[in-house]
Amino acid sequence: MDPLEIAAGLEAHGITDRTAARFRHRDVFSLAEELYARSPHEAVTAAAPTLVPAGPAAFRGFGYALLPGALACAAAAAGQAWAGAATVAAVAAALVWPGRTAGGRFPYVAHLLAAAVAGWAVYRHGTALAVGLALAVVPGHLAAVAFAAGARARLDGSRALEDFADRARPLLLAAVALFTGAATAAAALAGTPLPVAVPLALLLFLTRLLLRHGAHRAPVCAGLVLALVPVPAAAVAAAAGLLVHAVLALARASAHARP
Fold first, then answer.
1. What's the number of CA atoms in the CB half-sphere (13 Å) around residue 76?
2. Which residues lie closer than 8 Å to 240 by C-beta, 6 or more apart?
3. Among residues 60, 100, 107, 197, which is most buried (max CB within 10 A)?
4. Alpha-carbon distance 4 to 17, whole Å?
5. CB-CB contact of 223 with 244 (8 Å)
6. What is the pLDDT of residues 107-148, one digit of tens each?
7. Would you say 151 and 83 are in contact if contact means Cβ atoms under 8 Å apart?
8. What is the DSSP string of the chain?
9. Residue 91, by phi and psi: left (phi above 0), alpha (psi -120 to 50) or beta?
10. Where is pLDDT greater, at 48 or 85?
């Protein structure tokens, strides 16, 4: 254990800089350094990072990510009337598969709001939008997995919270940019308007990231509620707001602590 891991644990238990100030420390990391110095520990040598082969859970997650796109394409090609509704349900379920969500009395409110946002948009713009969102699930899954792995690697290699945040933010922005490009390609392939599909796909992708890493749910729900407003710029504003929240929340070490 090192000071950064102690700081992550303190953050995870609600210890803030204000609490640390009561113990005459400037911030949580300073408090963690003292705790580390006071605790007995053995010197360990850092092992070189090794590639861990993908296990059954990784293949299962990728298979789950393939289902919405396959269902949407099959139903749309068959001309089924229920294609849009089934695809919306599959896309919303893709937000639940990754697991961990923010705590609270109603843990699935954000998932229900995400389903409502996708369903309302598909109702207004047609089944092609549902197909575009479904096709974006796979690149969203891959971008989220790559971000989580990269953040864990940077957490293990950092020795200060500021150092980790400076490394995590560019990684997050790269994942968002990668997904935005993939969502644009998916929307073009599905034949749905890009100004409608891309912000909505990005909103759902950020929702998945924030829920997966245990970020506070209230800003996520607020962004999803904003996207329900029947104004063309609502989804863009909601996605921009969630991106700001993600940059702040996912740059915290406690968001990437091992379960």
1. 20
2. none
3. 197
4. 15
5. no
6. 688 989 999 999 999 899 988 898 899 899 999 999 999 999
7. no
8. --HHHHHHHHHHTT--HHHHHHTT-SSHHHHHHHHHHHS-----PPPPP-PPPP-HHHHHHHHHHHHHHHHHHHHHHTT-TTHHHHHHHHHHHHHHTT-----SS-TTHHHHHHHHHHHHHHHHH-HHHHHHHHHTHHHHHHHHHHHHHHHHHHHHH-SSHHHHHHHHHHHHHHHHHHHHHHHHHHHHHHT--HHHHHHHHHHHHHHHHHHHTT--HHHHHHHHHHHTSSSTTHHHHHHHHHHHHHHHHTTSGGGG---
9. alpha
10. 85
Are 128 and 79 within 8 A, CB to CB?
Answer: no
Structure-block tokens of residue 40:
């007995």
Structure tokens at 254: 């406690």
pTM listed for this prediction: 0.78
Q: Rounded to 10 degrees, what is the CA torsion of 171, 173, 178, 179?
A: 110
State which amino acid sits at residue 70: A
Phi/psi of residue 44, nearest 5 degrees: -125, 150
- Judging by beta carbons within 10 Å of its beta carbon (0-12, 13-18, 19+), is residue 6 exposed, middle or buried? buried
Compute the residue count for the chain.
259
Which pLDDT band holds residue 182 (cuts at 50, 70, 90)? very high
| pLDDT 10s digits, 186-214 | 999 989 999 999 999 999 999 999 998 88
Tokens 């254990």 correspond to what residue? Answer: 1
Q: Which two tokens stand for residue 84?
A: 């849009």
